[in-house]
Amino acid sequence: MRRQYNKGLCAVGASMPPVSGRDQGSTALLILLMYVCHPIRIRNPVKYFSYLANMFSRLFGRRNKEDSKYDDLPAPATANWGALGADMHSHFLPGIDDGAKNIDDSLLLLRTMADMGYKTIITTPHVMIDYYPNTTQTIQTALLAAQNVLKENNIDIQLRAAAEYYIDDYFTQLIEKEPLLTIHKNEVLVEFSMLYEPPMLGQALFSMQTNGYKPIIAHPERYMFFHRDLSKYSELKDRGCLLQLNMLSIAGYYGQNIKNVAEQLLAKGLYDYCGSDAHHEKHLAVLRAMACSKDYHRITGYPFLNSRLCL
Ligand SMILES: [Fe+2]
Fold this sequence. Notes:
single chain; 45% helix
């Protein structure tokens, strides 16, 4: 669908007449007017024009090389993500967050992941004090129940648990108080509000680092307030954070804007891990469909660190 859309734009561009000096002047005036009238104008003019360039390239630009190099590869016939080895972001433990509702649900979701070729699952229940006040204890208890049901049903998949910590005041205190659950070595998965940039974000990330942790930012492409200034993502990387792609973002599950940003971050090589962030069967159905689409090559052709999580 996206390809047809781009082809359409190219066709329009090819038939356009050369731009005259007067047209160039009008365009400059339009950009200046947009700058003056923009309701959320970025204060730094350089950043603002980089934002504009980014917007125009998304509207009229050619597809990047990263996209086109997979054009000739056929879509796989079977839904198998075995090449990734491990999934490191999901909500499969029974009854402790907005993922699996009970142990039967956990079994169904984990069986499907095993059928899709995953060898290791590091599942990551929410730790969000106002909604899912999980602790290491509640997570370990639910993990044990899920591991037992896998054993009883002879499902060949390694299941471990970490957490997806929500950055807020509670979390900034938790960092100091007790050991955090890690994805790999000292790496900790964190998320924050998708509506606004939390005021304590910088302080929380710094506090994690001074306490010996490396933050993995969950689904950075979903934070809309970063979209108008993509350099924010490079800043997070420069500060020592790892970035985790939600595979569903590439599938377009969260909408076209998020898909576009995910594609740009992928093309820039800014991601470190990819995760399903699966909560329920509908998410897994999208993952299965993706595994039989061209997106399969875009995910498996990228040097994600997931395979190092396999036991
Ligand atoms: Fe999540």
